[in-house]
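Page 42, continued from yesterday. The earlier attempt failed because a stray header line got pasted into the input along with the sequence. Redoing it now with the clean sequence only.
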Amino acid sequence: MENIKLDKNKILLGLSGGVDSTAAALLLKDKGFEVTGYYFDVLGNNEQGKADAQTAADQLGIELICEDVSAEFSEKVIGNFCSEYLRGRTPNPCVVCNPWIKFRKLIETADRLGIYYIATGHYCRIAHDEETGAYYVRRAANERKDQSYMLYRLGQDVLSRVIFPLGEFCDKEEIRDIAREKSLKNAEKKDSQEICFIDPTDNYVEYIRRKGFDTEPGKFVDKEGKVLGEHKGILNYTIGQRKGLGIAIGKPAFVTKMDTETNRITIGDNDDLFSRYVTAEDVFFTSGSASDWDGKDVKAKVRYAAQPSEAKLEVDGNNIMLTFEEPQRAATPGQSLVIYSGDKVIGGGFIR
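This time it went through. Structure tokens are written below.
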């Protein structure tokens, strides 16, 4: 790409047809960018999704490119999703999709079209360290909508070229008002809360079973190893789960541990779910390496909906361990441990 000049007046925007990405397009046009929309068809047959994106593009008066990314998405995201549950882990598919599919495809397509900037409707911001030249994801002004947690595995190649137009808005109604002012058809469209490749009327267990996978029944045990009953298969449970266990022990019971080697699920009290120590593997740091932060005080989240909490970071071989000031509840293997310095994302990894 070094011999191709990329146009900084043009921008490629991930356009889903929802109100966030559509409002992002309007804001970018107002800033003088020539916007091209890009729709990712992760299923390969999402005609309704493509139609919604095309309707938005037509109303915006911009070109829309649709690409079938279903083969790569199935391999990288759906394959990981299924295998993680079978291992007794709880994955977050967006964390895998963003670097491997969504932002990689945006960069590749922008390069092909001679476009420098890319954009999405995520609620987050970008910080640029003038001294080091490094770029970082920042938390959004709207704390309730902040999506920085999902983007911690993006590298400098992406962060140096991405714009998040919605990052400074404090209220979702402001975004809807932008769409209402232009009489856009999707101004009142509901936010998507579900996993994008699973129908909202479906559930992940049945989805994975239809893919041909399942897990065998095994034993519920207490923390001393005493057998309490039989579970339906590790696939059906996650750390911290209370409802749907199908077991009565005379007090509230929670899943505290799952062991795929012995096929045993440990049941305990709510207090058993809390720990000050969380270890993560397959770590990724936005700039530099984990060793740059060894022994330093940071903030971190063990799940998307949590608030960042004070912790000390230590490097443990290829892994990192965080010691939190306040015990964290249900740090779940497979979910991400995301680390912040102030409001900047500096890295993270997958909880062990």
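Notes: The CA atoms of residues 224 and 266 lie 9 Å apart.
Reminder to self: strip header lines before submitting.
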